[in-house]
Design brief:
Largest sheet: 5 strands, antiparallel
Number of helices: 3
Shape: globular
Structural class: alpha+beta
Order of helices and strands: HHEEEEEH
Number of domains: 1
Distance between the termini: 32 Å
Strand order of the largest sheet: 1-2-3-4-5
Strand content: 25-35%
Radius of gyration: 15 Å
Mean pLDDT: 76
């Protein structure tokens, strides 16, 4: 997983530099909007997870009882949800359990 993120980071940085130098701030603003929409939540926190060549290429986002990871798409300079609530996107915990794959425990949310 780390190698994939590193490869994506290198590609993302090359694209960002070649496409007119989008800043970390502008990319973060795009992610903020995207994550609020995806999670249906206005109270979110973004935490940078990985930086490559001065550009943040992955973020962890939490809010409204959810936890997701986004990576930058180098071609479109847009953020793509990579993991949601500890599970790769595209597979619900129920689907993973049905297939006999490990299922992460639900996130703990103190009240």
């Amino acid at each position: 997983m780390r190698r994939i993120l590193q490869g994506l980071g290198t590609i993302a940085c090359a694209c960002v530099l070649a496409c007119g130098g989008a800043s970390n701030d502008s990319l973060r603003a795009k992610l903020d909007s995207r994550a609020r929409f995806d999670l249906g939540c206005s109270d979110i926190q973004l935490a940078p997870l990985e930086e490559t060549n001065g550009y943040i290429v992955s973020y962890g986002v939490t809010g409204c009882g959810r936890r997701v990871t986004y990576v930058i798409n180098a071609t479109t300079e847009s953020w793509v949800m990579n993991v949601a609530d500890g599970q790769p996107t595209g597979q619900s915990p129920e689907e993973r359990q049905r297939r006999g794959q490990p299922v992460a425990p639900p996130p703990h949310h103190p009240r």
